[in-house]
Amino acid sequence: MRDILDLDLYPLDRPGSPAWTELVQNCRAELASEGMCNLERLLLPGAIARAMAEVAPIMERLSFLHKRSHNIYFRKEVPGLASDHPALKLVDTINHTVCGDQLEQSVLDWIYNWPQMAVFLGACMDKTSLFTMADPLARLNVMRYGDGEALNWHFDRSEFTTTLLLQEPSGGGEFLYRTALRSDTDPNYDGVAQVLLGKDPEVKSHVLKAGTLNVFKGKNTLHKVNSCKGPQDRFIAVFSYYERPGVRFSKEEQIGFYGRAV
Description:
The protein is of the alpha+beta class.
């Protein structure tokens, strides 16, 4: 793993050591204040090049074009919410997705399944343990956003999401987010509507650099990726971990996000 990750800068392979403990504490503080933390330059330049060489041909030939209008909940109806409520405003998402079963024995697959990654992320999120996802499609994804393409406003299904940026776009592609917009007991539909209407001053923007691992509390933080611009596409890997083993998407979710079910 030392040929893939900068473990001198980020000692993920030394759990319990003073340096590892300090890193975890720093990440916890950032997650508490910002809803995210970033490990810039975690992925070494040579590993970035190898990962792109592995995924680019698959993306070109076998990726799924995810293109649809949706509300932020990806559901037609939300109990207790009128169909014309502005929180259900439709937005457009378009990207190209490669799934976990297409990336077996790749650099990204090795990182995702590396036990110390789950140990580190669990410590940052104050979890007793974390498990890789059982879903062969959803467990590990790579998404490509070309010129004019974007991931629009949404909440994540899991409490947190881990991403690894492989390639920055020529322009655009900023990560926009509104920290702690809702809670498990308060859906804050009116607050959601304010974000969708562009009237929330607390929306923040962040630009990721290639090689950065981002840990993000996406379940209750509304977020999106702005449209990308120019000839160079945005490539980003998404790792999914859960507190319990055996988590899978439903058949309907698999088809909706990946165009197929297994």
